[in-house]
Specification:
alpha+beta, 8 helices, Methionyl-tRNA Fmet Formyltransferase, Chain A, domain 2, elongated, four-stranded mixed sheet, about 325 residues, Rossmann fold
């Protein structure tokens, strides 16, 4: 595993007395303004636990040298994969005695792939969860061993939902492994007709489309938290576009008092001393935002500083249509 989502599963396995024979994670990557190499979250947690097992960090797990290093660290009873970021080859899937299992942050077969939580929130799903699956060579297409369901809260961000799902996944993992070892698990094949995919997020996907409905934009803002963040550009007369990160939206109005009824999407208006933005089905309030180079702030406080005025536009980096 690699991401923070994997850490509760590692801690749970360690605290339950399972022997961690080896950890395979991504290489250290440059982070921060200085670009200093930093370990992935799972490696840092393993070090904090003092596990003392090998920590392998191949660039590509399919490389022969990487596979050989993993084999040398064995033998293994089971391989546990949580938010690793690479598809495992058959040689590795067959290495543990009981095969490899995966803790996946969705209700498979819905949202196979790298960004299931973000895609679920953006799509307006009311429910999410965690699936324990037996791994196959295809992406998140293995038989289901266990499922845990939970409602997505109305104001929940991807960051918050991931934080809730991680311990649920760890608990389900601990319950599944002993049953798997005893041969008590009945694997359920996934229904391919119900499969959907959650491709990896790209930075450009954070751009806000103000022609969408207020509800869709709100879901977008929550889905893009904590990365890549929902963003837009402020366009003012005789000024260069300024990038704004939108952290939170507020209420919606069909019509904004004093604003032209034919205002284009992205037009800024004012109501009750705070900024509102024309969207596809009315007006939506900005609650919290972050100007370039500054800390997040209440939108009303930003507005009082008069960085914009009614009639200015929010939109893509180029001139809004």
């Amino acid at each position: 595993g690699t991401a923070e989502f994997a850490c509760p599963s590692l801690v749970a396995l360690h605290e339950a007395g399972h022997e961690i024979a080896a950890i395979v994670t991504q290489p250290d990557r440059p982070r921060g303004r200085r670009g200093r190499p930093a370990p992935p979250p799972l490696k840092a947690r393993a070090q904090a636990l003092g596990l003392g097992c090998p920590v392998l960090q191949p660039e590509r797990v399919r490389e022969p040298a990487a596979l050989e290093a993993i084999e040398v660290a064995g033998p293994f009873d089971v391989g546990v994969v949580v938010a690793y970021g690479q598809i495992l080859p058959r040689r590795l899937l067959d290495l543990p005695r009981l095969g490899c299992v995966n803790v996946h942050a969705s209700l498979l077969p819905r949202w196979r792939g790298a960004a299931p939580v973000q895609r679920a929130i953006a799509a307006g799903d009311r429910e999410s969860g965690v699936t324990i699956q037996r791994m196959v060579e295809r992406l998140d297409a293995g038989p289901v061993l266990a499922t845990v369901r939970t409602a997505i809260e109305p104001r929940e961000t991807a960051e918050q939902l991931l934080a809730r799902l991680a311990p649920l996944g760890a608990e389900a993992l601990l319950e599944t492994l002993p049953r798997l070892a005893r041969g008590e698990v009945e694997p359920i094949e996934q229904d391919e007709a119900q499969a959907s995919y959650a491709p990896v997020l790209r930075k450009a996907e954070g751009a806000i489309d103000w022609t969408a409905s207020a509800a869709a934009i709100d879901r977008h803002v929550r889905a893009m938290t904590p990365w890549p963040r929902a963003f837009t550009f402020l366009h003012r007369e005789a000024a260069r576009p300024e990038r704004l990160v939108v952290h939170e939206l507020g209420g919606r109005l069909d019509e904004l008092p004093g604003a032209p009824p034919d205002a284009a999407p992205g037009t800024i208006g004012e109501h009750a001393g705070a900024p509102w933005v024309r969207c596809g089905d009315g007006w939506v309030a900005l609650e919290r935002l972050q100007p370039a180079g500054k800390r997040p702030m209440d939108a009303a406080a930003w507005w009082r500083g008069r960085p914009a005025r009614p009639g200015d536009r929010l939109g893509p980096a180029g001139a809004p249509r």
